[in-house]
Amino acid sequence: MIEDLCFKKGVFSIKVDTNFDNIPMMKILDNLAYTYCGEVFFHGAPRRAYEKVLS
User: Nearest-CA neighbor of 20 among 4, 2, 42?
Assistant: First the structure.
């Protein structure tokens, strides 16, 4: 899985953002234990931000 590769390469946090209407992506992130962090803005549009700390 990509998370294992990141950890082996010294990357200990993965950050992702998605549109508020991208329900399938939000379900995937929830199922993979990503934490909802709040809103970020990209080109002036709000997006949902997530993070997963790898250990």
Answer: 42
pTM over 0.85: yes
Alpha-carbon gap, residue 39 to 45, rounded angstroms: 10
Residue 52 CB-density burial (10 A; 0-12 exposed, 13-18 middle, 19+ buried): middle
DSSP code at position 29: H
The alpha-helical segments, DSSP class H, found in the chain are 2-8, 23-31
Number of domains observed in the structure of the chain:
1
- Note down the domain range covering 39: 2-53
pLDDT one digit per residue (tens) for the chain, 55 residues:
899 999 999 999 999 999 999 999 999 999 999 999 999 999 999 999 999 999 9
